[in-house]
Amino acid sequence: MSSTLTNALKAYVERKQKKSSAESKEEEKEHFKKLYTEWKGPSKYKQDSYQKIPKFYYKLPSEDEILLQKLREESRAVFLQRRSRELLDNDELQGLWFLLDKHHTPPMVGEEQMINFEDYLKVGEQAGPKCKPFFTAIVFAKLLQTDPYGRISIMQFFNYVMRKVWLHQTRIGLSLYDVAGQGYLKESDLENYILELIPTLPQLDGLEKSFYSFYVCTAVRKFFFFLDPLRTGRVKIQDILACSFLDDLLELRDEELSKEMQESNWFSAPSALRVYGQYLNLDKDHNGMLSKEELARYGTGTLTDVFLDRVFQECLTYDGEMDYKTYLDFVLALENRKEPQALQYLFRILDVQGKGELIVFSLNYFFRAIQEQMKLHGQEPVSFHDVKDEIFDMVKPADPLKITLQDLINSGQGDTVVSILIDLNGFWTYENREVLVADTTEEAEI
Predict the structure, then answer these.
(1) Distance CA 332, CA 340 (A)
(2) Before 107, cis peptide (omega within 30)?
(3) Where do runs of H (alpha helix) occur along 58-209?
């Protein structure tokens, strides 16, 4: 067949020799394509085209495609149920523990049982198909430490399995609230999840139902403040699982959680009531919103007017007043000044020129308000040039003439710099740090 094609082309070329070379080459190409298609066959030629590529993008059904939406929801629910059945239940976990205990490898390390790789594989064979993913050389190597016999701790391995099962269970639970099925939760999705979680947390039994909406808002804002710094209105389920916030929230299942642990946990009832109580105390006219004058009483009441002006310029307000949700972002930023997300929030306020950098003008703009407050309190104002030099020495920016957000984060001194510029109490603490350290040392010695 190939020789027939070659002969046909040769004959065609000979007939067209009298034509110009350019015309001849173009016609030769067209004639070759025609002959090749006839020889190969249209169906075979079609298979070699782009149509061989399988479809990989499926558009989400629109709001008016109700049947498609219902089908998608039902299929996702069935899939999640199937994944849930693949997880180990309590009885199976208990059976795994008995097998590990039975096949442990002596000698014990103190009171801790150990197991070598050979016995580990024996347990894997007897534990059943659900346990198979946990009994691999990779998992064993991850948990292997300094045991002279090359063994791993049975308790550490069991905790590893428990943690993995919990993560999968929680991911499935969160995915049930993922309406779009794209691996994200919108604010309303996370609100529904936490609202339905409240009855399962004994530490929240004392909350009145009228406070539920405020509690949910308080809890959700922490997730979105730290996991959605770009304010896209959604957070990845994977990010929720990776951070410690969900652990803190589910810690409230412990009926014997200490008072100290509750006070340090943002999601506890005392913490939520504290934050909301502060908001109500600041709201002097009881209109449910905070004006700049009312917010000025926040904390020790030493935040500068210039900083508060910028807060109300940059943050979402309603007729010049701040609602509870915006107030929560404000509180999270000031209470977590060391965190990159809090520094990003505060940097946007300090960046008066909106150029993504703090120059000498920006620093002076805020520090003048600190100097004015010092005069009002009868203190001798500190020279701005001295403070400016100290700030640049602390941050050590890549460009000696300006400080970026990344410079602040990299320096590890971002919280100190911010406190110096926005809060008289923060500046006083920095200025008298050596005296405070000396006093603390003396108290420790006593």
Answers:
(1) 12
(2) yes
(3) 66-85, 90-102, 117-127, 137-143, 154-175, 187-197
Say if CB 190 and CB 220 are below 8 A apart.
Answer: yes
Task: Delimit the domains of the chain by residue range.
Answer: 2-49, 70-172, 184-271, 311-445
Please check whether residue 175 is in contact with residue 237, taking contact to mean a CB–CB distance below 8 angstroms.
yes
Structural contact between residues 140 and 114, judged by C-beta atoms closer than 8 angstroms: no
Read off the DSSP letter of residue 423: B
For 76, the token pair is 């996702």
- Rounded CA-CA distance 138/135 in Å is 8
Contact of 306 with 367, CB cutoff 8 Å: no
Specify whether the CB–CB gap between 320 and 291 falls below 8 A: yes
Is the pLDDT at 21 greater than 70? The verdict is no
pLDDT for residue 42 is more than 60:
no
Q: Is 277 helix (H, G, I), strand (E, B) or coil?
A: helix
The token pair that represents 8 in the structure block: 């046909």
| Both tokens assigned to 416 | 């100190």
The rounded distance, in Å, linking the Cα atoms of 397 and 411 is: 8
Q: The domain 311-445: what is its CATH number?
A: 1.10.238.10
Instruction: Give mean pLDDT, residues 221-230.
Output: 94
Residue 425 to residues 302, 355, 389, 422, 432, Cα–Cα distance (Å): 6, 28, 20, 9, 11
Q: Compute CA distances 382 → 32, 367, 372, whole Å.
A: 88, 10, 10
CATH of the domain spanning 70-172, picked from 3.30.420, 1.10.238, 2.60.40, 1.10.3110: 1.10.238
Q: Are 141 and 151 in contact (CB under 8 A)?
A: no
Q: Is the pTM of this model over 0.70?
A: yes
Q: How many CA atoms lie within 13 A of 238 on its CB side?
A: 2
**143 pLDDT above the threshold of 70:** yes
Amino acid identity of 109?
Answer: V
Whether residue 223 contacts residue 235, with contact meaning beta carbons closer than 8 Å, is answered with yes
Which residues are 152's β-sheet partners?
A: 115
Name beta bridge partners: 290. Answer: 322
Query: How many residues in total does the chain contain?
Result: 446
